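#random but structural
TW: two for the price of one
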Amino acid sequence: MSDLIFYTNPMSRGQIARWMLEEVGAPYEQRLLGYGTTMKGDEYVAINPMGKVPAIVHKGEVVTEAAAICLYLADAFPEAGLKPKAEGLASYYRWTFFCAGPVEAVFSNKAAGLEPPADKQATLGYGNYDLTIDTLEKAVAGKTYVAGDSFSAADVYVGSMIDFMLNFNMLEPRPAFLAYVEPLRERAAYKRAKEIDNALIAEAQAATADA
């Protein structure tokens, strides 16, 4: 058994963790799970009681949540150089968790057609969609990397969120977003990760069509 096991479904936020794993470059064992079946089975629920992916098990330790997986892997494999030095560390944590918190919440609500009334916005962590997206734009505007002067795990997570929302027309293609994410899409690890997941999606679709 591998020291690093990756639980995923190609049509999930597992794509974020896949990209990070490819950036790290360490060998990992892939375990594919199905929605409503193995993802909710006893074996996997013992790993992640939420019954959702992604998750990793590294040397017997479980890590769930895509943002946590990204930052954990940067720490676990320092030779990959995916954690910034001191001058970029504050932004590294700030913008990763901003995307894991307000951005994740606001786009999930938007996808579900939920818009908080004005008198309730002050009680929410993100306030409203426009405020959150404007703040996200400020985080990446004029920057090659979101934290410091080199690529880091924060770029995997922040970049994945922006990439996803742009691809599904949930984010206005503002120049700042495009200028930030387009070079990330050219990274070899990003391309490898997409090739793997796209091939798995195509296999699953073909199997469904033949059934």
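TW: number two ↓
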Amino acid sequence: MSHAVRGLGIDVGSTTAKMVAVGSNAEMIWHWLEPAEPRVEEQVARFLDKAAAALGPLSGIPSVATGYGRGLVPAMRRVTEITCHARGVYREFAVGVTLVDIGGQDSKVIRVGSRGETADFSMNDKCAAGTGRFLEVIAQRLAVPLERLGPIALGTSEEVAISSTCTVFAESEVISLIARGVAVGAILRGLHRALVKRVVAMIRTVGLVAPLVLSGGGACNPAICQLLAEETGMAVHLPRHPQLVGAHGAALIALEKDAD
């Protein structure tokens, strides 16, 4: 079955690591996702073993690495996350989009042009506010499982404003709110609102062009989806595999290299 594989994309983020294999028609034929590990080289080697077990020998198959840890991946090429995400989302939607990708340690907004090119982008990689880490820190403080944050936030109409955009100060603000007896649901809804407003500010810097697409781990949080739609006044679309957009784009770039 190895003849069906024409490109491999490996996206090593701060929170998760992903691999996608594509065939000659650019279709995704295999994928894998799991939490990122400190020893990137060993994790990627295990990914390749899994792919080979499922697809057959991979010798000579072109590969592209992207993401936070791409420098540690023994791929044939390394390409930026912006380029790979633009390629991946354009493959699925086939039109220019505004892509919001909310990851564990950074978030980015990419305006993808009508031919799939990166028209503009904004990236937040210096501060945890506006990223999954922002909610993760608060989840630990509130002793709420990460996967429950969104549903709890949407389970109430009450909302308390969180004025701090810094994660450290927001955590202190949350402690004060708890001490005053403010309901957890209202706090969480306010925290999601603060995160989304930070992302919307990034969207404004690149210009909002429909359709609006949300990817990354943030796309798994229903509160982020709903509040992003509220704040932008625009429907939010999700890719078929929200966390694989970058890896898919990397695999597509590898496929193009194979065709050269």
